[in-house]
Amino acid sequence: MVTKQPFGKTKDGADVFAYTIGSDRGIAVTVLDFGATLQSVVLPHRGGSVDVLLGYDTVREYEENDVYLGVSVGRFAGRIPDSLLKIGSDVFPVTANEGKNQLHGGIVGFDKRIWHAEAGDNSVTFSLTSRDGEEGYPGNLRCTAAYTLEGDVLTVVYSGESDRTTAWNPTNHAYWNLNGHDAGDTRTHTLLIPADRYVPVGPDMIASKGEADVSGTKFDFRTMREIKETYDHSFVLSGGPIRLRGTIGIGVEIETDCKAVQFYNAKYLSERKGKCGAVYRPFGAVCLETEGRQTQRNESVCEENILYANEPKAHTTKIRFLFE
User: Fold this and answer.
1) Segment 213-264, tens digit of pLDDT
2) Residue 226's closest CA among 265, 282, 269?
3) CB 7 within 8 A of CB 18
4) Which pLDDT score, from 0 to 100, does residue 209 have?
5) In angstroms, rounded to a whole number, what is the distance separating the alpha carbons of residues 110 and 170?
6) CA-CA distance, 144 to 115, in Å (whole number)?
7) Number of folded domains in the chain?
8) Which residue range(s) make up the domain with 62?
9) Interatomic CA distance for residues 67 and 56, integer angstroms
10) Do 261 and 242 form a contact (C-beta atoms < 8 A)?
């Protein structure tokens, strides 16, 4: 069942709506048409419930959202070095919004747009058109973000089609805290990432040295273990699900057809007010952004991040909620 209710208005007076998808299992997932945003995930827990997703209570906070809490990122998740988008031999200057680089789609990315919403029995599909030249990207791009809840599984599907060859690497930027969105430090969460390789980055967080073996490094999460340290890195997936578990008996298992996952444990999440009066601080969440591989400096975007003219493409991620 899907219910719709007003969430507020933008600073320009546009209406924003929240859609809550419920399941017989007692799971409730709320998504917003502003940014095609995953705003809350409420799970049953020990006779009550717990919201395991960081977020905000107001539209204004999402308009000022500088850390991408729960939003759909586009056109391109991650960083474009020197704001020069290279697709094969073609180079397109794109807008810079993180020093000289572009991060997560530019100044007005998909996270700052109101999407058209269509609700089904257990799903909400958002759609958006990004015009040729927006933030420097070529092509008129039509894209959708679909959220479907079936039993214990939340499926997120991003699809896109463009009239010109362009770059396209969407993701959802959920901030998970499986002890509760207001529970604080997540470095005691345990994590498994089925990846033999990761992408080293320089001080500006740009990939410039190819891919490296995780063996013998802090980046080896091929067996379940505590997070403990600081991460903001891309891992090249080698098959099998990603698993994350908190300390109160709740976990998630993530399956995706994407080539990589960006694992970020919120070091740069500055102190701020969140939902229901919560205060969020550094390391208060885990982001597992399923997407294509990161762009190396002075190189073309990876093949999986190219959307060829008039050739539709889709990426699917399934999030299974686990309960002890």
Assistant:
1) 999 999 999 999 999 999 999 999 999 999 999 999 999 999 999 999 999 9
2) 265
3) yes
4) 83
5) 9
6) 9
7) 1
8) 2-323
9) 12
10) yes
Q: How far is CA 254 from the centre of its chain?
A: 13
Q: 61 near 34, Cβ under 8 Å? A: no
Strand, coil or helix: 304: helix
pLDDT at 324: 83
Q: What angle do CA 302, 303, 304 make, to 5 degrees?
A: 95
Whole-angstrom distance, CA of residue 244 vs CA of residue 288: 9
How far apart CA 280 and CA 49 sit, in angstroms, is 20
Question: What are 14's strand-pairing partners?
Answer: none
With a cut of 50, which residues of the chain have pLDDT below it?
none
**Hunting for tokens 């539209």 — which residue is that?**
59
Alpha-carbon span 153 to 66, nearest angstrom: 29
Where do the H-state alpha helices sit in the chain? 59-63
State the greatest distance between any 2 C-alpha atoms of the chain, in Å, as a whole number. Answer: 58
Can you give the pLDDT at residue 190? 98
Query: 45, 104, 161, 173: which is the annotated catalytic residue?
Result: 173
Residue 289 annotated to the active site: yes
**Rounded to two decimals, what is the model's pTM?**
0.97
The predicted pLDDT at position 286 comes to 98
Contacts for 2 with CB less than 8 Å, ≥ 6 apart = 19, 20, 21, 22, 119, 120, 121, 122, 123, 124
**According to the model, what pLDDT value does residue 41 have?**
98
Name the active-site residue from 135, 211, 253, 289.
289
Instruction: Note if 173 is an active site residue.
Output: yes
- What digits encode the pLDDT tens for the residues 22-31? 999 899 999 9
Rounding to the nearest 10 degrees, give the CA dihedral for residues 48, 243, 105, 110.
-30
Quick one: pLDDT at residue 47?
Answer: 83
What Rg, from alpha-carbon coordinates, does the chain have?
19
CATH number of the CATH domain containing 196: 2.70.98.10
Q: What is the pLDDT of residue 170?
A: 98
